[in-house]
Structures are given as structure tokens and as C-alpha cells.
Automatic annotation (TrEMBL), chain A:
One of its GO terms (cellular component) is ATP-binding cassette (ABC) transporter complex. Its EC number is 7.6.2.11. Keywords: ATP-binding, Cell membrane, Membrane, Nucleotide-binding, Translocase, Transport. This is Spermidine/putrescine import ATP-binding protein PotA. Part of the ABC transporter complex PotABCD involved in spermidine/putrescine import. Responsible for energy coupling to the transport system. CDD domains: ABC_PotA_N. Gene3D superfamilies: 2.40.50.100, P-loop containing nucleotide triphosphate hydrolases (3.40.50.300). It is an enzyme of class 7 (translocase). Belongs to the ABC transporter superfamily. Spermidine/putrescine importer (TC 3.A.1.11.1) family. The complex is composed of two ATP-binding proteins (PotA), two transmembrane proteins (PotB and PotC) and a solute-binding protein (PotD).
Automatic annotation (TrEMBL), chain B:
GO terms for cellular component: plasma membrane. It is found in: Cell membrane. It is a multi-pass membrane protein. Residues 52-269 form the ABC transmembrane type-1 domain. This is ABC transporter permease. Pfam families: BPD_transp_1.
Length: 377, 282
């Protein structure tokens, strides 16, 4: 649909012995909202800094609109960045902050005024120009940072966990707003986050990364519905990942039983990872279940109950609106489209068991950790 | 709140050693030798105008030189690695551990007409060379007992007080802010002019305060390095308390006037520092 704008070609980033980026190949289309998603230290921030010009890859090339830009310094790139902690100029008022780039470009005063006002209006801060940076809330400061970048009409806007410091409610509002701004100005956004929900909400394309490698590239639906390996399945949403065997096309075996599924193209008898999303499982009376297990834990989550069920020592997470007693025997029913079959990967067996359920959930609910990717720099 | 009692020793300390002496000076300044209230101590202030002028001119000169040396030093130091910083900080602080008078005496023997510097220069035949080239009759550089020597003494003694606050402010500037400026199109010179310098002004201001105030009230320096030829405020005040001219009432009055002038200067400067609009235009 649109042309390629940025290409990372075989990019490697190494600090001493640590490999931060491991032979990354990626192209980014014009006008797309692309998210680099991954846990702390996966290299996503480093990738953004390479595109921004703040770091040079150890080897490999960066192309912008077809031209190699490895050696172009940040101030000469047609790229602007929104930093994680805003990095506003505290010695200037809001207007001057936003006008900074235009003043450097020696924009005529009347055009400068008009464009700054436009940018402030775009981020819903019209009339805030005379205020000082410190008088604004975190969310407002972040808007100023966005306006300050966008006013220069860059071809690409880089956003480094821009919502990380905001509280949950504000974060959700800003997600929608960011998407609106991106569509309104019609430029490429490259967005870095470790928050999978943020990525799913806003992106056209998600790049899932771990340990310096790209794990999967795809639309939010692809990534969620068709994860490529256990890491992606676990990182995006909640997943039960079970060892299975592909008996034949459309038939998968686990727990010694055969299940109908929609996947094909595996060798007969090939060991696979079976992903079952917690919301795709129905709890039924024991007698009607395809599998039976014991409920070990129930947590009320508002919309649904998180029910942990023990199936022969392997614990599943089931999200359902039906309440089950702890200790009761239940059956489960899974429709064929509830199964997703993945080839075995180095991540097989590392994720998808909810035996340590509560600990894992707490971790996910923690706020963004402060030292995000600090080690990578 | 329950720990308020812990503050009592400090409050007492401040009252006894800060407030009380200040009040005493005010009382002395407004009384005569016979104990009656008077303004006569102030009415004769005009005759000491040269001392005021000298003190302020020399102190301002020393402060400006301290900025010119201290700022670049602090700036480049903040870009160095941990080791270089530590060593440099050590070297900057080291002279301060030596006694003030001792340091000043050292400068005397360096700057003297027959001092180390002149001896060295004549030893390597520098003066002979100059004399043959220009047909002059130079035997030494006259450095001691000049105003320049006083300023040198001030700069040497107070420079660390300029470097330290500037360094700590520049060091604390978030590197992301600098990256943001680069990102928005600023080259290194612009980053410095539009971001680093304005953000470091508070450090410069406190450096100026910490250099200017001791400079303007310094004594000893003018006697030791200036040969007593230039009467400075510090010496003038000292004379009123210890010298032949013994008159603590006049001494207090001069001290009070100096304090007021310094306070006004500082207030104006801080005002300037707060006016961020003005700074932004820089």
C-alpha cells in the first residue's frame, strides 16, 4: 500500500561482550504505526536510538528513503523523538519549547507562531503557551513533548515509551489520542513499549523482540491469534502452552486425547506447542468435558474470573464469567478454533504454565520499571 | 513534627553566633563612642569612597576572571570519565586544604621582583633577549604590590568556589535534554547556547556569590600582595578594630554599608536569574 521508508539491514549492536541487537533486518513503511514490543533489555530502545542517530550500529546499515544514514548526526535527520521522561527544556515556557526546532530552522516569526499554535491545538493544549513546564501535569508535559516533535513536520516520529510515566487511566486516553494524532498528521510513528496492550491498541504493525532478536512481525491480530513461538504467545496476552503432537492435518493430540483444530501443514507425529487462550475455554460439567481437572484457585477480576485448573499437574488459566468452587472437579470444552498450533522453538517449555500463577500476574501488573533498557545503553 | 526538638541546638547556635553579632554590628553602627545614638558614623562615609570603589572593582574583576576560567573548566570536566573527574576535583580542592596565608605567602615569593618567576626568566636570558630586541632596560617584571597581584590572589584563592557549583549543575543536566535539542536540529554550538548554558546559570549565580562576597570583603590579600598601596574595605574595617585608628563604631558602620550593597547586588542578580524569559532570549 505504501512505500518503504526505513530499512535496517543486518544490524548488529554489541557492547563489549553483550550482544544487544543480533542481526536485525527490518523495513518500515511510510505512514505506518509500527511498535517495537518486548521486555526490558530486549534491544528495542537501542533500535530506536539507532534510527534516531544517537547510536551507531556495530555493523550493518541503516537506510532512510533509500540513502544510507549511519553517519548522519541526529540534528540532520528528518526524524524527531518523543523521549520517555519528556526531556522538556525547563528554562523555557511551553511556547518556546515547541518553537525550539522551528527557531533553529530560522522559520519566519508569523509562520512559527501559527505552526506552534497548530501543534498545541493538535495535542489539546491550545492557550497553554505562556505556562512554565513545571506547572503542567505529567500527561500535559508528554503532550508538549509530542507537539515539540511534531511541529517540525518530521517524516518519522520516534516514541520511546512515552506513556511509561503516566498512570493507567491517562495512559489509555493517551493511547487513543496518539493514534488520532498519527492519523491526523499522516506520518510514520515508531513506538517503543513493553506494554502489550498498548501495542495491540495502537499499532498497524507490531515487531515483537526478545534478547536482541525479532521474534515476530505482524498486525496486532496476527500476533495475538497466530503467535510464532511460545515467547510471543506468552508475552502477548495470556496463554496456556501445552506439549502436543500433530497426528494429522486438523487433528492435534495432548493428554493422550485427540482434538479437532484448524491447523495443518505439520509432519504427521510432529511434536508441537499448543496454545490455548484463557478466554477460548468453556467450563462445563465434568461428564461433558473433553478434559477434566480440579479448580485450585479463583480470582475475581471484574469482567471475569481467573480460574486456575489443574490438569494432571499442569495448571491452566481459564477466564470465564462462570464461577467455580475451589476444589471442585470440572470439565472443559474447547472449540477447534480455540487451538493454535506452533512449531517447537527454543522457548518451548519456558512459558505457558500457570503453576506460579499469582507471582506471574503480579509481575505483569507492576508499573513500568524505571531502569528500562538502561543496561542496553 | 515530633522531631522538632532536634532543631533547638541549631536555632540556639544561629541566635548566638549569627543573629546576635549582626545585631551588635547594627547597634555599634548607630552609636557614638559615648554611647549616644548617632548617624555620624554614616555621614562621613563619603571619604571612604575610594576604598569602596577599589574593593568592588577588584572583586568584580576577580569574579569575571573566575567565570572565564571556571566555566569552561567545569564544562569540559563534566564530559570526562569518572577517573579524570576525581583526579581533577582532587587537584582543584587540594590548595584549599593549605592555609590561606601560607598560599598567599607562596605567591609573594613567586611574584617578587627577585622572586622565583623573575629569577627563572632572567636565568633563561629572557630579559636580555627582550632588552636586545627592543632596546629596553628591563631587569624584572614588576608583579608584586600591584592591583593585578591582588586580583590574582583572589582568583587563585576563590576559583574552586566558582568551579564547584557550575560543575555540579552542568553535571546534573539530563543527557536526554541535550539529545532532545540535537534531535530538534541543534548542532553542538546551538545545544550549548540554547540549552546547556541557560540551564547552568543557577550554578554560575551561586559561583558568583561565593567568589564575589569573599573577594569584596577580603583583607590581608591587599596588604600582602598589594603592598598596602590599595586600601580595600576589608583592610579599612580591620583598621577600625585592630589598628591605630581604633573605632569599632565606624568599622561597624562601614561593614553595614558594605553588607547592604552586597545584598542589593545579590538580589538584583537573583532576580535576573529567575527572569527565565530574559534568559531564554540569550
Amino acid at each position: 500500500m505504501s512505500k518503504e521508508l526505513i530499512r535496517l539491514s543486518d544490524c548488529v549492536m554489541r557492547f563489549d561482550e553483550d550482544v544487544i541487537l543480533d542481526h536485525i533486518n527490518l523495513y518500515i513503511n511510510d505512514k505506518e504505526f509500527l511498535t517495537l514490543l518486548g521486555p526490558s533489555g530486549c534491544g528495542k530502545t537501542t533500535m530506536l536510538r539507532i534510527i534516531g542517530g544517537f547510536q551507531k550500529p556495530t555493523s550493518g546499515d541503516v537506510f532512510f528513503d533509500g540513502a544510507r544514514i549511519n553517519d548522519v548526526p541526529p540534528h540532520k535527520r528528518k526524524v524527531n523523538t518523543v523521549f520517555q521522561k519528556y526531556a522538556l527544556f525547563t528554562h523555557m515556557n511551553i511556547f518556546e519549547n515547541v518553537a525550539f526546532g522551528l527557531r533553529i530552522a530560522k522559520t519566519p516569526e508569523d509562520e512559527l507562531r501559527r505552526r506552534v499554535e497548530e501543534a498545541l491545538t493538535l495535542v489539546n493544549l491550545a492557550g497553554y503557551g505562556k505556562r512554565s513546564v513545571n506547572s503542567l501535569s505529567g500527561g500535559q508535559q508528554q503532550r508538549v513533548a509530542i507537539a515539540r516533535a511534531i511541529v517540525n513536520r518530521p517524516q518519522v516520529l520516534l516514541l520511546d515509551e512515552p506513556l511509561g510515566a503516566l498512570d493507567l487511566k491517562l495512559r489509555k486516553d493517551m493511547q487513543i489520542e496518539l493514534k488520532r494524532i498519527q492519523q491526523q498528521v499522516g506520518i510514520t510513528f515508531i513506538y517503543v513499549t513493553h506494554d502489550q496492550e498498548e501495542a495491540l491498541t495502537m499499532s498497524d504493525t507490531i515487531v515483537v523482540m526478545n534478547q536482541g532478536k525479532i521474534q515476530q512481525i505482524g498486525t496486532p491480530e496476527d500476533i495475538y491469534n497466530e503467535p510464532k513461538n511460545a515467547f510471543v504467545a506468552d508475552f502477548i496476552g495470556e496463554s496456556n502452552i501445552i506439549d502436543g503432537v500433530m497426528h494429522e492435518d486438523y487433528v492435534v493430540g495432548m493428554y493422550g486425547r485427540r482434538f479437532q483444530c484448524l491447523d495443518k501443514g505439520f509432519a504427521p507425529g510432529e511434536p508441537v506447542d499448543v496454545v490455548i487462550r484463557p478466554e477460548d475455554i468453556d467450563i462445563v460439567p465434568e461428564a461433558q468435558g473433553q478434559l477434566t481437572g480440579t479448580v485450585t484457585e479463583v480470582t475475581f477480576k471484574g469482567v471475569h474470573y481467573d480460574t486456575i485448573v489443574d490438569f494432571r499437574g499442569f495448571k491452566w488459566l481459564i477466564q470465564t464469567t462462570d464461577y467455580s468452587e475451589v476444589g471442585s472437579r470440572i470439565g472443559v470444552k474447547i472449540d477447534p478454533d480455540g487451538f493454535h498450533i506452533m512449531k517447537k522453538s527454543p522457548y518451548s517449555g519456558m512459558f505457558g504454565d500457570y503453576s506460579s500463577y499469582s507471582a506471574e500476574y503480579d509481575e505483569l501488573n507492576e508499573g513500568p520499571d524505571e531502569g528500562e533498557d538502561e543496561d542496553a545503553e | 513534627m515530633r522531631n522538632r526538638s532536634l532543631a533547638i541546638p541549631y536555632v540556639v547556635w544561629m541566635a548566638v553566633f549569627v543573629i546576635a553579632p549582626l545585631l551588635l554590628i547594627v547597634v555599634y553602627a548607630f552609636t557614638a563612642k559615648d554611647g549616644g545614638v548617632t548617624l555620624s558614623n554614616f555621614s562621613n562615609m563619603g571619604q571612604y569612597f575610594p576604598a569602596f570603589r577599589h574593593s568592588f572593582v577588584l572583586a568584580v574583576t576577580a569574579t569575571v576572571i573566575c567565570i572565564l576560567i571556571g566555566y569552561p573548566l567545569a564544562y569540559f570536566l563534566s564530559k570526562e570519565g569518572v577517573l579524570v573527574r576525581k583526579v581533577a576535583m582532587m587537584l582543584i580542592m587540594l590548595p584549599m586544604w593549605m592555609n590561606f596565608l601560607l598560599r598567599t605567602y607562596a605567591w609573594m615569593s613567586l611574584l617578587d621582583d627577585n622572586g622565583l618567576i623573575n629569577q627563572f626568566l632572567s636565568g633563561i636570558g629572557f630579559f636580555r633577549l627582550i632588552n636586545t630586541l627592543f632596546g629596553t632596560d628591563l631587569t624584572c617584571f614588576h608583579m608584586i604590590n600591584t592591583q593585578g597581584a591582588i586580583v590574582l590572589g583572589m582568583v587563585y584563592n576563590f576559583l574552586p568556589f566558582m568551579i564547584m557549583p557550575i560543575f555540579s549543575v552542568i553535571d546534573k543536566i539530563d543527557p536526554k535534554v541535550i539529545e532532545a535539542a540535537q534531535d530538534l536540529g541543534a548542532n553542538s554550538a546551538m545545544v550549548f547556547r540554547k540549552v546547556i548554558f541557560p540551564l547552568s546559570l543557577p550554578g554560575v549565580l551561586s559561583g558568583v556569590t561565593m567568589v564575589f562576597i569573599p573577594s569584596v570583603s577580603t583583607f590581608a590579600l591587599s596588604r600582602l600582595l598589594g603592598g598596602g598601596k590599595t586600601l580595600l574595605l576589608g583592610d579599612l574595617i580591620e583598621m577600625q578594630f585592630l589598628g591605630n585608628a581604633y573605632n569599632p563604631h565606624l568599622g561597624s558602620a562601614i561593614a553595614l554599608v558594605m553588607m547592604v550593597i552586597v545584598l542589593v547586588c545579590m538580589a538584583v542578580m537573583n532576580r535576573f536569574g529567575e527572569g527565565e524569559e530574559g534568559v531564554a532570549v540569550l
